[in-house]
Every structure is written in C-alpha cells, then in structure tokens.
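Lab notebook: predicted structure, single chain.

Context: the supervisor wants predicted structures on file for every construct in the current expression panel, including those that have not yet been purified. This is the next one on the list. No modifications to the sequence; it matches the entry in the shared construct table.
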Amino acid sequence: MESGRENRISSRSSTLRALATQGGALLSALPILLGRRPREARLQRLDTKSSRNEFQGSSRSEMSGGVFAGAKTFRDLFQMLDVKRALWGTQKRYTAQELKILINRVRTINPQFHLPLEVIPETNGLRERVKVLAAAEALTDKRNDHR
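Prediction complete. Output recorded below exactly as produced.
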C-alpha cells in the first residue's frame, strides 16, 4: 500500500515537472506570440529618426510657446488633443481622452473633483495653455455672475 502511494506521488511530481517545463517554454514564447519585440529592439527604436524628432520637437515647441499656443478656447484645445491622440509627459504617455478628463477636473470648481494644475503635463506647453484658458474662463464666469 505504501509503494502505491509513493508511485502516485512520484507520478504527480514528474507530471508537475513536465507541466512546469511546458509552462516555462510557453512564457518565454509569449512576447513573440503577442508580437512584442525584445527589449533591445524597443531600445533601438528610440534611436530612430522619427523618435528623435518627436522628443526634440517637444522641447523646441516649449521654447516657442508650445504646440497648443494657438488654442483660443478649451474646445480648440480638445480638438488639438484629438488630432495629436497621445502626449508623452515626464512619467507616462497620456491619451487625448485622459488629458481631457484631467483638464476638465482642473477646470471644475467642485471641490470633490477638482485637481491641481500640476497634474497636467508641461509637454508642448499644454499646462501653460490650460492655465491661460482656465484663467480666461474664470474671468468670463465672474463677469457673467455680476450681470
């Protein structure tokens, strides 16, 4: 009876070992199956001309008032964000939808939802443009309240 139990334990451990080996092989192949490039390939991609231009272009834009300097209203700004589709901040990549939500939360006067201006990335002069537009909007709201 004891040897039958030992055989089952031995059989289970060899089955588990085989499954672990197969699982390890599948995990190592997963990035390839998902179409992801190895880390080295991603790092090389940063050295391409278009990537360099994207990063250099954002610093040049900040010096000249930013890509978003032409926005006269929040509607204009949101249309520009839709065209751009995504924007790299210092810590992460923001989608246009994420940025619109953040901007609206900065604009709101409701203390439950309000966020500080610092949550908006400075990239391409976006934070500065939101600051200017929010100030203009607040001034307009204040004038309308006094009428």
